[in-house]
Amino acid sequence: MGQQFSPTLYEGMRWRMIGPFRGGRTVAATGIPGKSSVFYMAPNNGGVWKTTDFGRTWIPIFDDQPTGSIGALAVAPSNPDIIYVGSGEGLRRPDLSTGDGIYKSTDGGQTWKHLGLRDGLQIGAILVDPHEPNRVFVGVLGHPYGPNAERGVFRSLDGGLNWQKVLYKDDNTGAIDLAFDPGNPQTIYAHMWASRR
Q: Hey, is 8 helix, strand or coil?
């Protein structure tokens, strides 16, 4: 169990909006260990945004892609220039939007390459191995309105060039969240969800 802190330590803190101002509903945000001024935020239907000055200014870095609907975002812990983006809102709600698979940048978000999983439509989670940036796991929620086989947990050992389905229940059950065991990245926990609109 983690170290516990008294809630009184946070009483003097006040939340403030740091943007980006086209934010909206946000399900994906991440920082870079050792670079506290740099982090990324991905609001649903707002693409991916990057700040290098603690959130004072934001740059849209995903606007030239065919989708702005984002469900997951991950920076490789061993190489912060490698960013994976899962498109398609990773939530079930009446007004959701879908995407077209996984994207990757190897230059800190300047350029992007589509990596597949197009029929997954909603990516709920991305895990990048803490030591090997080409070992990636993706939680695919799937089609929101019907059955489809591109659901579950997919793994790539070559940085997204090829994907293997490693956990699958049925055409109505997708993966919404993934986590490494904190002491062993060979153990992965998956949250599966049987859901359709």
A: helix
Asked if residue 72 belongs to a domain, the reply is yes
Rounded alpha-carbon distances, angstroms, from residue 143 to 73, 91, 147: 19, 12, 7
What is residue 28's predicted lDDT score, i.e. its pLDDT? 85
C-alpha dihedral, 157 to 163 to 169 to 171, nearest 10°:
170
Number of domains in the chain: 1
Q: Residue 123: inside a domain, yes or no?
A: yes
- The β-bridge partners of 30 are 40
pLDDT at 73 over 80: yes
42 in any annotated domain: yes
Give the side-chain half-sphere CA count within 13 A for 103. 31
Would you say 75 and 128 are in contact if contact means Cβ atoms under 8 Å apart?
yes
CA gap 80, 11 in Å, rounded: 33
In what helix (H) or strand (E) does residue 51 lie, and over which residues does it extend? strand 49-51
Please check whether residue 65 lies inside any domain of the structure: yes
- Rg (alpha carbons) of the chain, rounded to whole number: 17
**Closest of 122, 131, 117, 118 to residue 162, by C-alpha:** 117
Domain extent, residue 21, equals 16-194
Q: What is the pLDDT of residues 23-49, one digit of tens each?
A: 567 778 888 888 989 999 988 788 899
CATH number at residue 144: 2.130.10.10
